[in-house]
């Protein structure tokens, strides 16, 4: 563009902030309208706004790999429909996993936005959120599917609103294929409300500034995003680094699944190449390519321009490679429902880059080790499905300890479900919820600690343990130590006691489970940790006296004084 075509910076910033505000208005509408706690409490959604050229111009905070996956999903969905076939007031439903970049219950609504009298869209909106049931082979989450057709009703980009009116036939198809139709259709209408709010905000913006001026401003914003990102990448060291790890299994066999990434920085570009990872597997841990791109985009953005609202320009210097038919580029009819692979793979990107960037932390607890409760509540005479994202410890860095009981880094603004909501919406009762002493990986800087939750069922039901890193430990850095992995213990203290990872179990009244989550990895030798920090950890209950002696070489006395073990003394003397 010529200098004469460029808008002044003040006008560009006003328009940029207006578009970001539109995304936030959509977010608030969704949260306030949703029927389902996984949306309004957990914040399990992604909201994006696009230009007429289908380039990202703004997004609201949500799950990171949803937001990145929306980019590909919009392209796939509009290509399938044909932009020329879209009409004002239309809204489309897409959950075909290989296009949408998520499992079938992460339903994305997208809509063209037309100016008055225009025959082509001037923008597109996308709102993705997790629906609680869409007719899969089992209620809640599908843990053992072996192809897509076991995972629920599929929509490839189906017109569900025509000319502003909901298409009754499609809505009824959803109603009769859902075990929880009121929740599912309620959340659909909440997403639709968010889209209408976004449409209104864009029309107000166009009326104020004119469509051409808005398009020019957004073009400059995207251009700026690319420029600052390229400068940020160019400031990183050039090189190529490979890391490997494992996902527990695919719930069909017990075999570990190897995953590998090679990250290459060359000038002002970064490539993430997943060649060498497992081929797609029988069970539902395979990832569509859109989900893989979402993982990489999230890590890339955090390294380059973490404080800037995202737009398409920020991702132009990034390339993602995953072989078709691999676990990171699943092909039809591969099962894709249980996408915990994306969470483990986020840490894999960090593990590769930590070899070059010493500001990166050790692994967090390595997973999102939550649970889901299902059953029938006699108090309401209604079925329920409710989930909880459990906190883990974050990994330590070279400058500080990891955070305690945080949501996994890949989950961004996601929250756990409050006990009050869990107990109100289901037939479970909490007996304990506490931090776990000694669960953080020891180090000069200690990994954050995890969470223990003990729950009792008051009526018959089911529990789904949701975790995919229970067989291998989260990794540490620079001589730090690795924490114990996450686990769920079913029927503790009985002759049926069983440790599980990803698992579905039937629970009778009085049956209990204990969910234990991993702490973060340590950074640096524990023998180099400041003794005063160890004393503080013991006083706070993060580290036991036995662990202070065993790992840190600090013998803590009853009066609060301490003395070094021979190992610490020898290290200090050496």
Note down, in words, how this protein is organized:
Residues 8-526 form the Hydantoinase B/oxoprolinase domain. This is Hydantoinase B/oxoprolinase family protein. The chain is globular. It has helices at 9-33, 37-40, 64-81, 97-100, 168-176, 181-209, 211-234, 289-304, 341-353, 419-425, 531-540, 545-552, 566-573, and strands spanning 45-51, 56-60, 91-94, 106-113, 123-130, 156-162, 165-166, 239-247, 257-266, 269-273, 318-321, 370-377, 382-388, 428-435, 451-457, 461-466, 487-490, 498-500, 503-507, 512-516, 554-556, 562-564. β17 and β18 (498-500) form a beta hairpin. 30% of the residues lie in helices and 22% in strands. With 574 residues, the chain is an alpha+beta fold. It is built from 13 helices and 22 strands.
Describe the SSE topology.
Elements: H1 9-33, H2 37-40, E1 45-51, E2 56-60, H3 64-81, E3 91-94, H4 97-100, E4 106-113, E5 123-130, E6 156-162, E7 165-166, H5 168-176, H6 181-209, H7 211-234, E8 239-247, E9 257-266, E10 269-273, H8 289-304, E11 318-321, H9 341-353, E12 370-377, E13 382-388, H10 419-425, E14 428-435, E15 451-457, E16 461-466, E17 487-490, E18 498-500, E19 503-507, E20 512-516, H11 531-540, H12 545-552, E21 554-556, E22 562-564, H13 566-573
Parallel strand pairs: 10-11
Antiparallel strand pairs: 1-2, 1-5, 3-4, 3-6, 4-5, 6-7, 8-9, 9-10, 12-13, 12-16, 14-15, 15-20, 16-19, 17-18, 17-20, 21-22
Helix pairs in contact: 1-6, 1-7, 3-8, 5-6, 6-7, 8-9
């Amino acid at each position: 563009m010529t200098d004469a075509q460029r808008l002044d910076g003040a006008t560009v910033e006003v328009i940029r902030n207006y578009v970001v505000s539109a995304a936030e208005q959509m977010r608030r509408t969704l949260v306030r309208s949703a029927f389902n706690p996984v949306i309004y409490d957990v914040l399990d959604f992604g909201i994006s706004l696009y230009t007429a050229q289908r380039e990202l111009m703004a997004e609201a905070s949500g799950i990171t790999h949803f937001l990145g996956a929306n980019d590909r999903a919009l392209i796939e969905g509009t290509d399938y429909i044909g932009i020329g076939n879209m009409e004002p007031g239309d809204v489309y439903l897409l959950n075909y996993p290989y296009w949408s970049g998520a499992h079938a219950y992460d339903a994305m609504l997208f809509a063209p936005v037309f100016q008055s009298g225009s025959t082509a869209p001037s923008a597109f909106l996308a709102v993705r959120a997790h629906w609680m049931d869409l007719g899969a082979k089992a209620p809640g989450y599908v843990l053992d599917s072996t192809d897509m057709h076991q995972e629920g009703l599929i929509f490839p980009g189906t017109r569900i609103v025509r000319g502003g009116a909901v298409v009754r036939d499609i809505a009824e198809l959803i109603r009769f294929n859902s075990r929880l139709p009121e929740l599912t259709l309620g959340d659909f209408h909440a997403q639709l409300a968010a889209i209408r709010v976004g449409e209104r905000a864009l029309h107000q913006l166009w009326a104020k500034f004119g469509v051409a001026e808005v398009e020019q401003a957004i073009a400059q914003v995207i251009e700026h995003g690319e420029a600052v990102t390229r400068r940020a990448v160019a400031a990183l060291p050039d090189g190529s680094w490979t890391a490997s790890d494992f996902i527990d299994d695919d719930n069909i066999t017990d075999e570990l699944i190897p995953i590998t990434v090679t990250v290459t920085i060359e000038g002002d570009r970064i490539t993430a190449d997943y060649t060498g990872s497992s081929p797609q597997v029988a069970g539902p841990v395979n990832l569509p390519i859109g989900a893989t791109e979402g993982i990489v985009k999230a890590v890339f953005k955090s390294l380059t321009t973490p404080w800037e609202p995202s737009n398409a320009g920020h991702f132009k210097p990034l390339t993602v490679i995953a072989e078709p038919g691999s676990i990171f580029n699943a092909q039809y009819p591969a099962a894709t429902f249980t996408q915990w692979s994306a969470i483990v793979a986020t840490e894999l990107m960090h593990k590769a880059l930590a070899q070059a960037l010493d500001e990166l932390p050790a692994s967090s607890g390595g997973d999102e080790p939550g649970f889901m409760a299902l059953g029938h509540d006699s108090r309401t005479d209604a079925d329920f499905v409710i989930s909880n994202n459990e906190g883990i410890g974050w990994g330590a860095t070279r400058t500080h300890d990891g955070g305690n009981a945080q949501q996994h880094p890949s989950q961004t603004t996601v929250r756990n479900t409050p006990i009050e909501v869990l107990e109100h919406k289901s037939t479970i009762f909490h007996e304990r919820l506490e931090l776990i002493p000694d669960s953080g990986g020891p180090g000069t800087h200690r990994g954050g600690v995890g969470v223990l939750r003990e729950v009792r069922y008051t009526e018959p039901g089911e529990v789904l343990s949701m975790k995919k890193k229970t067989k291998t430990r989260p990794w540490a850095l620079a001589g730090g130590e690795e924490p114990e992995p996450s686990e769920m213990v079913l029927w503790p203290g009985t002759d049926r006691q069983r440790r599980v990872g990803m698992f579905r179990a039937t629970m009778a009244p009085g049956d209990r489970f204990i969910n234990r989550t991993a702490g973060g990895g340590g950074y640096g030798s524990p023998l180099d940790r400041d003794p005063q920090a160890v004393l503080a950890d013991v006083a706070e209950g993060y580290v036991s006296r036995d662990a202070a002696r065993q790992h840190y070489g600090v013998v803590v006395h009853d009066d609060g004084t301490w003395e070094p073990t021979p190992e610490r003394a020898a290290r200090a003397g050496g």
